[in-house]
């Protein structure tokens, strides 16, 4: 699948698939997830994304017309069947892709999950913030916000888009008083600059809703997907971060956040 360079400019972040209001366009579903929010979780990977992260492990989630439709009620029933395994902390996480491209449907899904007594989490790159997204965030128990880079120029290089909306989403979440986790992919040579790590910490140090920041070490496990889609993987010469680099970044973040976790 060849993605034209002007694809991002041609697309509008309007809700996807409004002609199928009872369906969610998904990529896949993972059960017994332990790295996408508190406790044991069912993780639904929504289809469609407008970021073009150079290190993306799932570029097959980008296509807004890819994936498959799944009825919202079916997802709710799957979650209810797995509810005994969730315990007090677990629940359902919607990841992606970028879930907020299907925000109105996710609002319905989260409302039904809450009616069933199931905790909800949203793993988002902060692509946009409008009234529909705010309504979804207000129905979200945990926001897992992916901050790709605090510097806007570097963010552009990594994702193709600005980080302004990401920071606005974080600001809005803080205003609601509801819990938020930050997630930061550590890519040697791209997102490991000390000055910007401190800048990120300074930006968020006074936020009271941030429970932790998760450092996600860069890996190349998704390179085969880029090859299958006939797309050039530009970070083929970038190694995973060393233990020393991970420890160094964790130490910097510990100056600003009450909990730092290396995934």
How would you sum up this structure, described in words?
A nine-stranded mixed β-sheet has the order 3-1-2-4-5-6-7-8-9, with helices on one face. It has 263 residues and is α/β, with parallel strands linked by helices. Helix 4 (131-138) links the parallel strand 5 and strand 6 (142-146). 38% of the residues are buried. The chain is built from nine helices and nine strands. The protein has a single domain, classed as TIM Barrel, CATH 3.20.20.
The portion of residues forming beta strands comes to 15-25%
In the sheet with the most strands, the strands line up as 3-1-2-4-5-6-7-8-9
Cα-to-Cα separation, first versus last residue = 31 Å
CATH level 4 superfamily: Aldolase class I
Shape summary: globular
List low-pLDDT spans: 1-13
User: How many structural units, i.e. domains?
Assistant: 1
Round the Cα radius of gyration to an integer and report it: 18 Å
- Structural class by secondary-structure content: alpha/beta
- Secondary structure: number of strands: 9
- Fraction of residues in helix: 25-40%
The major pleated sheet works out as: 9 strands, mixed
H/E order of the elements? HEEEHEHEHEHHEHEHHE
CATH class: Alpha Beta
Query: What integer is the average pLDDT?
Result: 92
Q: Helical element count?
A: 9
Kindly identify the CATH topology: TIM Barrel
User: Based on the structure given, which CATH architecture is correct?
Assistant: Alpha-Beta Barrel
């Amino acid at each position: 699948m060849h993605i034209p360079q002007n694809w991002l400019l041609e697309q509008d972040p309007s809700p996807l698939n409004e002609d199928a209001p009872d369906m969610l366009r998904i990529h896949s579903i993972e059960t017994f997830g332990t790295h996408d929010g508190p406790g044991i979780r069912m993780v639904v990977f929504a289809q469609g994304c407008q970021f073009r992260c150079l290190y993306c492990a799932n570029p097959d989630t980008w296509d807004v017309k890819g994936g498959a439709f799944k009825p919202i009620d079916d997802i709710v029933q799957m979650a209810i069947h797995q509810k005994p395994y969730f315990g007090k902390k677990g629940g359902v996480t919607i990841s992606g892709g970028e879930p907020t491209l299907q925000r109105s449907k996710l609002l319905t899904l989260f409302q039904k999950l809450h009616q069933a007594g199931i905790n909800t989490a949203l793993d988002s790159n902060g692509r946009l913030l409008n009234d529909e997204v705010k309504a979804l965030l207000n129905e979200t128990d945990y926001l897992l916000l992916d901050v790709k880079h605090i510097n806007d120029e570097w963010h552009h290089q990594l994702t193709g888009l600005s980080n302004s909306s990401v920071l606005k989403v974080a600001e809005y979440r803080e205003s609601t008083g509801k819990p938020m986790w930050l997630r930061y992919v550590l890519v040697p040579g791209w997102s490991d600059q000390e000055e910007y790590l401190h800048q990120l910490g300074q930006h968020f140090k006074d936020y009271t809703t941030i429970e932790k920041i998760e450092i996600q070490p860069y890996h190349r496990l998704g390179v085969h997907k880029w090859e299958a889609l006939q797309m050039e993987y530009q970070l083929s010469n970038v190694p995973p971060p060393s233990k020393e680099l991970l420890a160094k970044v964790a130490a910097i973040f510990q100056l600003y956040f009450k909990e730092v976790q290396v995934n």
